[in-house]
Inverse folding.
């Protein structure tokens, strides 16, 4: 399976933008880039996904490098509720394979 | 609120006990998953059910026995567990295919059942 590399932890201040990087140099042409986050004492939740183009939704934006070997999850204005572990996951479009989680980035948001 | 419901939220059991974890979803999803998560570690995939049939077993010990009685329910039967099996057990569901309005293949997770084996 193609792997991802993320920083172990990052810190941000409330109401400032946060850029969470992910390296995936062995990504294949059919791998989608998915982001999930896990808030304390909760199950993971879907954040965003993309293939080649940058993507925006109500939670975040996803910027994908032109060579697709890296991507960045952007939280435009961090809130205390965004403190979580963020997982960058590569996924082939075969839903029955499930998700394989890497170590993720623990985001701390300071008031 | 999550649309995947797991019960019980907490379970304490001895090594000789038999217990079950339950998971329920009413989103019409046809794929369901069990994950195990140790403290400060990422979730690890255990089993995948597709259309009520076991499609993936990630070499999980036989003391864990999954069951999918219908498309809305997923059970995990526990027997003769070890203290190192203490963990958060997460259930998730997703559409069985990428067709239709939701193309993300998004997994919806429950809040988990926290298991302690004494």
């Amino acid at each position: 399976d193609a792997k991802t590399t993320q920083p172990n932890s990052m810190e941000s201040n409330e109401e400032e933008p946060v850029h969470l990087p992910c390296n995936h140099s062995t990504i294949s042409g059919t791998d989608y880039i998915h982001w999930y986050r896990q808030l304390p004492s909760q199950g993971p939740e879907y954040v965003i996904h993309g293939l080649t183009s940058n993507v925006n939704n109500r939670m975040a934006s996803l910027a994908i490098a032109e060579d697709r070997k890296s991507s960045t999850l952007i939280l435009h204005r961090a809130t205390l509720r965004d403190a979580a572990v963020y997982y960058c996951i590569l996924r082939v479009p075969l839903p029955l394979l499930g998700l394989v989680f890497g170590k993720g980035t623990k985001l701390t948001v300071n008031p | 609120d999550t649309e995947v419901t797991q019960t019980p939220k907490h379970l304490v059991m001895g090594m000789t006990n038999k217990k079950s974890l339950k998971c329920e979803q009413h989103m019409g999803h046809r794929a369901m998953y069990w994950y195990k998560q140790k403290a400060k570690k990422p979730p690890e995939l255990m089993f995948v059910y597709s259309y009520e049939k076991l499609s993936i077993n990630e070499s999980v010990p036989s003391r864990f026995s999954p069951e999918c009685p219908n498309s809305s329910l997923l059970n995990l039967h526990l027997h003769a567990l070890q203290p190192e099996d203490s963990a958060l057990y997460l259930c998730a569901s997703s559409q069985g295919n990428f067709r239709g309005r939701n193309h993300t293949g998004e997994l919806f997770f429950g809040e988990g059942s926290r298991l302690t084996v004494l």
DSSP finds no helices and nine strands in chain A. The mean pLDDT of chain A is 92. The CA atoms of residues 13 and 110 of chain A lie 5 Å apart.
